[in-house]
């Protein structure tokens, strides 16, 4: 048997944390001296402590660790817990990557003159076009690529001829900004006659007068560009007349290097 201090050194878990584990029923001492109140741990509890430390290093909370330990010897149950955590960590990694991009972009802009902080907004007309489109709800903005894969996958057998320019567009229909469950329609201009599939529609879209701003590089500056468009709309006495959309002149599918991306942000407007 080991005193709590000895067990603490062997497991590299602080005495304070061992007492907390006891309080929440995660790792109770093997025995407690009824006279002195001293806690004693057994050698077999070293393995349990090791499991707790390993699960904590994976980012599991203590309540979840308690659940996992109860089923630790069930390989299938353990696999399910680990698979869920893996999915969560991948999502967290994507979120962190987005935050890093914003931070890096801000630092880079702060090192330049004020003119680099400004965005050129222009009034232009996007022509009417025949498109193939797919509209669906995606869990987050970084999953837009999944929709494009579905669009091209469902129409591959028809050998669709792309127009020039192809106008790869994503239209965002939600009334306000949403971080999840985003209502998006992706579309690209085509020539020729084709039939609809289960999810893909071929249709004509009318011309649109838009306030437009082109950004180069990662999507970290999209919010600043949208703000610049908003100021331009207000100053000119315009009104937003439809859902915003992006035109991807150089997209991640065309070039994996974010420095080379070219995106045109468009807000339909009217007087």
Automatic annotation (TrEMBL):
Cite the entry's keywords alphabetically.
Answer: DNA-binding
- Which stretches make up the HTH merR-type domain? 1-71
Q: Which SMART domains match?
A: AraC_E_bind, HTH_MERR
Q: Which InterPro entries match?
A: AraC_E-bd, DNA-bd_dom_put_sf, GyrI-like, MerR-type_HTH_dom, MerR_fam, Reg_factor_effector_dom_sf
**Which molecular-function annotations from GO does this UniProt entry contain?**
DNA binding; DNA-binding transcription factor activity
Stored CDD domains: HTH_BmrR
Q: Which domain of life is it from?
A: Bacteria
Supply the PANTHER family for this chain: MERR FAMILY REGULATORY PROTEIN, REDOX-CYCLING DRUG-SENSING TRANSCRIPTIONAL ACTIVATOR SOXR
Which protein, by its recorded name, is this?
Answer: MerR family transcriptional regulator
Native organism is Anaerotruncus massiliensis
């Amino acid at each position: 048997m080991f005193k709590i201090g000895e067990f603490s050194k062997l497991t590299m878990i602080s005495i304070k944390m061992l007492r907390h584990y006891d309080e929440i029923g995660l790792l109770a001492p093997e025995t407690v001296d009824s006279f002195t109140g001293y806690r004693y741990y057994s050698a077999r509890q070293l393995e349990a402590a090791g499991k707790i430390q390993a699960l904590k290093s994976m980012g599991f909370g203590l309540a979840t660790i308690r659940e996992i330990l109860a089923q630790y010897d069930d390989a299938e149950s353990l696999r399910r817990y680990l698979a869920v955590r893996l999915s969560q960590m991948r999502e967290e990694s994507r979120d962190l990557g987005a935050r890093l991009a914003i931070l890096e972009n801000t630092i880079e802009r702060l090192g330049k003159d004020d003119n680099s902080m400004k965005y050129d907004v222009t009034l232009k007309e996007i022509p009417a076009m025949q498109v193939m489109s797919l509209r669906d709800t995606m869990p987050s903005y970084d999953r837009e690529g999944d929709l494009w894969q579905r669009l091209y996958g469902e129409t591959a057998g028809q050998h669709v001829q792309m127009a020039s320019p192809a106008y790869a567009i994503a239209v965002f229909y939600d009334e306000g900004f949403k971080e999840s469950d985003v209502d998006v329609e992706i579309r690209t201009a085509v020539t020729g006659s084709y039939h609809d599939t289960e999810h893909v529609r071929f249709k004509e879209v009318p011309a649109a007068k838009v306030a437009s701003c082109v950004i180069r590089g990662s999507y970290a500056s999209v919010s600043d560009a949208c703000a610049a468009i908003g100021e331009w709309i207000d100053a000119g006495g315009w009104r937003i007349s439809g859902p915003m959309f992006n035109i991807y002149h150089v997209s991640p599918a065309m070039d994996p290097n974010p420095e080379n991306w070219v995106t045109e942000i468009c807000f339909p407007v009217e007087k």
